[in-house]
Design a protein that fits this description.
With 77 residues, the protein is mainly α. It has 3 helices and no strands. The N and C termini lie far apart (43 Å). InterPro entries: Dimeric_a/b-barrel.
Length: 77
């Protein structure tokens, strides 16, 4: 990273990996969503998009090592 590059970081939480896979499958099967993404790529320019990214998009999965009930994310009663 330097003054000419940026990093976008996003974090999502799912109850299980299976839930993630189910949602991801539904998104990729949503024709309207796919068309919007393709249209956006066309607006940006696919080559420009590749140039801006410069690197492959990383998708990493993490697992909590702390019981959820022992965190600030525990369900409120």
């Amino acid at each position: 990273m330097d003054e000419n590059t940026s990093e976008i970081f996003a974090l999502w939480e799912y109850d299980s990996f299976e839930q993630y896979e189910e949602i991801e499958t539904k998104i990729k099967a949503d024709e309207e969503h796919v068309q919007r993404v393709q249209k956006r790529f066309d607006q940006i320019g696919r080559e420009r998009f590749k140039e801006v990214l410069k690197q492959e998009i990383k998708q990493e999965f993490i697992t909590s090592t702390v019981d959820r009930d022992k965190t600030i994310l525990k369900p409120r009663v």
